[in-house]
Write a structure and sequence with these properties.
heterotrimer, A mainly alpha, B mainly alpha, C alpha/beta, A: mainly alpha, two-stranded antiparallel sheet, 13 helices, B: two-stranded antiparallel ribbon, 14 helices, 72% helix
């Protein structure tokens, strides 16, 4: 066993123990515990959908796209509002066109003039884009709460009633979301491995100059990457919008995807999924089981640990494994 | 023609090391200070003081703090507002629990408290850099947000979670009118700016800049990265803590934990980036730009006679803000301070083109 | 060194905007006008709820101008300021608008408890009254300490008290609440925390367990909260949310299978934007109706005739008569009537904030007055005086049936025997802290 991996393994083990601890406590019903776990994994899937977009763009263009959350919201708004007039599949198609156009615009207006600038400058530029998209989306589509109707029943299903007392509550849209995320991951994996464009993207991600020297058109690749990230944003927007309703504060939740990418590794799409699941699960378990203990011990004015749990978790991971679980290692110690 | 150093010879090292070596610069600075201290209190309206000048000055101080960390030392921080919160709550607790303390002492104590917390949350910078550090500082932001909202001791067990302060009083004199508050804040900011300017010209500042430019090389020549990075966090948080205390006591008067949230942190970062990273003057420019632009954007449609709903104006503000940020980053990545420097260069040659 | 074209443009823009900025902060003055600032939020997570309120408020002011030519001949001018439910921005809006108009701002209605707390310190210095009808500080009912605050027609202690009375009635008596569990799912802000004091008091009195579940702004992430609800299985849930937190809460209640019939929202958690996005799942959800719920009265006909028929309507015509629209109208009416009452003493001219404060302190909206206003049956009669800035403390419960709100109870009245001592204590504490001189109502010349 590589000694360098020891701290990570210790951290992961501590997390696992912490996750299982409530189960050992007699006061927790196993059925409820399973529900919390499922709820956590579900939140995790939602986060990973956004995190995938982050990882994609960072992998291929080295830009940390702060505007991913705004893109998710914008895509959701487009779908919700266009679907008021045409069937859902048409709305999805129209949104796809819009997101591709947006990707092209971003590359032309923001990325090309800023080529070769430091990462922080590009990051701030995406922050500016996020602001712009915010205002633009609300000007065009309005700032009410809109709904995306996937045609699923909202009432939860009760399953495994004979195994656990009272059964376990499962929501249909959660299952659909998980299925969609898995499909997306599969599609992206196939895209990257089997198609020429996917190979070109991987080449660009590896080394910009080398890719250019073999004739891969960098600018077009960036448009494609942002368009694919736009598609991911669309899927995330559909799932989130169907679950939470399409409204402005959707993108605040997208901020949680930052620690997810850090955990999983900024350049790894599967890492985004794993990171999301870990973060979602950890958050919910901490909030439901740890918060009440802390509130009682320290006389706090309420729980709310999940506001910072993901970030502190990311911080701890950064200290033992700065490149994330699946990111590429680089040594830069001073 | 006017702005030349012709005939200005320095005969001592001391004279050569002045902050403003060119005589015209000294006159200009003196004029600005005289105007700010002696003229503005008489010509300013209550609105100008309370809504424009005081917030601008406090934000400039905070921006200087952020600039020291981000611009001079190169450590990205997205948690600056949390350190302002530490300063504000520390000042509040000192003021409430030890009422005999002079407010200046309270300010310094608040700054020190913020510096201590800054060192704590700056420790990850010893192992991580760049964007990863940004996310680590986010942890500071959210954790401190949560702490001030949940740990009742900080807000003195107030049931609503909001804290409120009495007007600042020192040596028996209470700063009640907006003009008095403005003069108080102005004095604090001028003193702190001088401190910051001298700090960045000293060996401490040089160590920071070395770490920012090439940290491996800096270590090789003997600069201690741990020392440099932690002092950067400490001093930056000191400034932010004082700014936070001023923000809470002088500008807001009463606040909830949400007053120092993530959008404040992002706003401070914008000020530094647009104003110019690594420039004290740039902090002032950035603060003015970020603070005045929304006010400006709000008044323009009405002045032009175009009737827009407040919601539309809000959205347009966001759009213009976002595009201005991108525009600035493309056109002048080194910010407004660089534009100012270019202007001064041109002025030295004027009326000749080169 | 020549400048790049981009930098040249930047220079020009910088100079131009500095020059323009100088000339922009001018204010216009005119005579015989009463200026009403309208600080509102039409964007952000609370926009869906703030927009109908602001529409109702502004429509009523427009109607008074169009139908009556103003308040006894004094025309109403108003200006909106967007603050997105952010306390700091709200205070900015206050600073910007407080000196507008020939006599300054008439009255501020911040529609945010956070901003109310901040302005409570500033209003006495600036001499502008605050109407915080249905929100704000519960202890500001005490006019001897809070001279400038007017929580007309209801506070959060009133609301919490009425809810406890109602569930007590449902259980067959307040004593039957012993051993029951009531959860307060609240917005983690001064607004959400305000009822806690009263609920804790009542919990002590009747022996029910109070579960406190805060939800962080903006309230989109409530999964953990509702998992805890599922774990604790409270008998009733009181929802103290605002904006998108409300619809999210009901959605999560659906997802975790909590019966909506056992949920009771405060009057800020019981309007169309809270239930319509949830769809079928919101059926059976109950909420307090602050004075009027949904529906139209005679005053709406006036608004349609004088404002919408002339194309001056602020929002959509189909939306008038909604819960929050009506509330905005009622709030505007209270402000206008305060001015009208003050004019009886000070004359039919533009009045200062101090004069309007007197008017608000001597409001007497009896049934005859309500009929004249076209709000009969819409709002309960209300009368304020120096000690009591609330005026009336009644509310009913309405329920959403999927299409509309219908009343399920009569008017409850809050139990002042419990609330009054709490108000007095809290106000006294505030007065000591802020070194405020408590008024002696008997000595004051009316």
């Amino acid at each position: 066993m590589n000694k360098k991996n020891l701290p990570v393994i210790v951290l992961l083990a501590a997390l696992a123990i912490g996750t299982l601890l409530p189960l050992l406590e007699k006061s927790t019903q196993p059925g409820f515990y399973v529900e919390v776990v499922l709820g956590g994994l579900m939140s995790g899937v939602l986060y990973s959908l956004v995190a995938m977009g982050f990882a994609l763009i960072f992998k291929a263009s080295g830009v940390f796209n702060f505007a991913q959350g705004a893109m998710v919201l914008f895509a959701a708004l487009c779908i919700a509002r266009i679907a008021e007039h045409v069937p859902l599949w048409a709305a999805l198609g129209a949104t796809l066109v819009i997101m591709t156009a947006f990707a092209w615009l971003i590359e032309r207006v923001v990325l090309r003039p800023l080529v070769n600038q430091e990462g922080i400058v590009l990051f701030m530029a995406t922050l500016g884009v996020a602001f712009f998209l915010d205002g633009f989306g609300q000007t065009v589509w309005g700032s009410d709460i809109y709904t995306i109707d996937l045609g699923l029943a909202k009432e939860p299903m009760l399953i495994l009633e004979n195994v656990f007392a009272g059964g376990i509550l499962v929501n249909r849209d959660d299952l659909v979301a998980a299925a969609l995320a898995a499909l997306l991951l599969l599609a992206l994996a196939l895209f990257f491995q089997k198609t020429a464009t996917g190979r070109a993207l991987r080449a660009v991600a590896d080394d910009h100059q080398a890719a250019q020297s073999v004739g891969i058109p960098l600018n077009r690749i960036w448009v494609i990457v942002w368009a694919v990230a736009g598609v991911v944003a669309m899927v995330a927007g559909t799932v989130w919008g169907a679950k939470l309703g399409v409204q402005f504060s959707l993108q605040d939740v997208a901020l949680k995807a930052l620690p997810v990418v850090i955990l999983g590794g900024l350049t790894s799409v599967p890492g985004a999924i794993v990171g999301g699941l870990i973060v979602g699960l950890g958050e919910k378990i901490a909030e439901v089981f740890l918060s009440p203990i802390l509130v009682k011990t320290f006389d706090l004015a309420g729980g709310g640990i999940e506001n910072w749990f993901a970030y502190v978790l990311a911080l701890l991971f950064l200290l033992v494994r700065p490149e994330g679980l699946f990111g590429e290692r680089h040594i830069d110690r001073v | 023609m006017l702005y030349r150093e012709n005939g200005q010879f320095k005969s001592t090292y001391r004279a050569d090391q002045q902050v403003l070596p060119i005589r015209q610069d000294r006159w200009f600075m003196a004029a600005v200070l005289v105007f700010a201290f002696a003229v503005v209190p008489f010509i300013g309206t209550q609105y100008t003081f309370q809504a424009i000048l005081i917030p601008f000055l406090i934000y400039s101080l905070a921006a200087i703090g952020v600039n020291l960390l981000v611009g001079y030392c190169g450590q990205i921080s997205l948690g600056s507002a949390a350190f302002m919160a530490v300063g504000a709550y520390a000042a509040y607790n000192f003021a409430v629990r030890v009422p005999q303390l002079n407010f200046l002492v309270i300010l310094v104590l608040a700054g020190l408290a913020a510096a201590a917390v800054g060192i704590l949350f700056g420790t990850p910078s010893l192992r991580i850099k760049g964007l990863y550090l940004a996310v680590a500082t986010l942890a500071a932001q959210f954790f401190l947000d949560w702490t001030f909202a949940r740990v009742k001791w900080f807000s003195n067990y107030s049931p609503s979670g909001a804290v409120s302060t009495t007007p600042v009083s020192m040596f028996g004199f209470t700063f009640e009118t907006p003009a008095e508050k403005y003069l108080f804040v102005l004095s604090v900011v001028v003193v702190m700016t001088l401190v910051a300017k001298n700090l960045v010209r000293s060996h401490v500042g040089r160590a920071w800049m070395a770490i920012r430019d090439m940290d491996v090389a800096a270590k090789v020549i003997g600069i201690r990265p741990v020392h440099a990075k932690l002092t950067a966090f400490a001093v930056s948080s000191f400034f932010l803590g004082i700014a936070g205390a001023l923000w809470g006591f002088v500008h807001l008067g009463s606040w909830e934990p949400a007053a120092f949230n993530l959008s404040q942190s992002l706003r401070l970062l914008f000020m530094v980036i647009i104003g110019g990273m690594g420039s004290i003057l740039g902090s002032f420019f950035g603060a003015a730009f970020i603070w005045l632009t929304p006010l400006f954007l709000n008044q323009v449609p009405a002045a032009l006679g175009v009737q827009l709903s407040t919601a539309t104006i809000s959205h347009i503000e966001l759009m213009i803000f976002g595009s201005l940020i991108v525009f600035f980053l493309i056109a002048e990545p080194h910010g407004l301070a660089r534009l100012w420097a270019i202007g001064k260069e041109k002025l030295r040659l004027w009326p000749f083109p080169h | 060194m020549t400048l790049q074209p981009k930098t040249r443009w930047l220079f020009a823009a910088a100079i131009a905007s500095t020059v323009a900025a100088g000339g922009v902060f001018a204010q216009a003055t005119a005579a015989k006008e009463q200026f009403f600032p309208v600080i509102s939020y039409r964007t952000g997570p609370y926009g869906p709820n703030g927009t109908p309120w602001a529409n109702g408020y502004v429509d009523y002011l427009k109607m008074i101008n169009a139908r009556d030519g103003g308040i006894n001949g004094v025309k109403i001018t108003f200006e909106e300021c967007e603050f997105g439910y952010d306390t700091a921005r709200g205070v900015e809006c206050y600073e910007r608008l407080k000196s507008k108009g020939p006599t300054g701002a008439t009255v501020f209605q911040p529609l945010s408890t956070g901003v109310t707390f901040a302005l409570t310190d500033k209003a006495p210095t600036d001499k502008i009254p605050l109407i915080t009808s249905g929100y704000g500080r519960a202890d500001s009912v005490d006019g001897t300490v809070f001279k400038w605050n007017f929580p007309l027609a209801g506070t959060y202690w009133t609301a919490a008290d009425i809810l406890v009375q109602h569930v007590g009635k449902k259980e067959g008596g307040l004593d039957k609440l012993k051993g029951k569990k009531i959860a307060l799912v609240y917005h983690d802000s001064p607004y959400g925390k305000e009822p806690i004091a009263l609920l804790q008091e009542r919990a002590k009195m009747h022996g029910f367990e109070l579960l406190l579940l805060p939800v962080t702004h903006p309230g989109v992430e409530q999964k953990s909260t509702w998992l805890q609800v599922r774990q604790q299985r409270p008998d009733y849930i009181f929802l103290w949310g605002w904006g998108v937190m409300n619809s999210t809460a009901i959605k999560e209640a659906v997802a975790t299978g909590y019966p909506r019939e056992k949920m009771y929202g405060v009057w800020w958690a019981g309007a169309e934007p809270d239930v319509v996005p949830v769809g079928e799942g919101a059926k059976g959800y109950n909420a307090l109706a602050f004075q009027a719920g949904a529906g139209q009265a005679a005053v709406h006909q006036d608004v349609l005739k004088h404002v919408y028929a002339k194309g001056q309507g602020t929002g959509k015509q189909e939306d008038i008569g909604q819960v929050l629209y009506n509330r905005g109208m009622i709030h505007a009416m209270l402000a206008v009537e305060g001015v009208r009452q003050a004019q009886k003493r000070f004359g039919n001219k533009p009045l200062t904030g101090e004069q309007v404060r007197w008017g608000l302190e001597n409001l007497n909206l009896d049934p005859a007055a309500l009929k004249r206003l076209g709000m009969e049956g819409f709002i309960a009669p209300l009368a304020t005086n120096c000690i009591d800035h609330e005026g009336s403390r009644k509310a009913r419960i309405h329920q959403w049936d999927g299409q509309k709100w219908t009343y399920t109870t009569d008017f409850y009245e809050a139990d002042m025997q419990i609330i009054k001592p709490m108000i007095t204590n809290s106000a006294k504490q505030y007065a000591t802290e802020k070194k405020i001189e408590v008024r002696d109502c008997a000595k004051e010349v009316s």
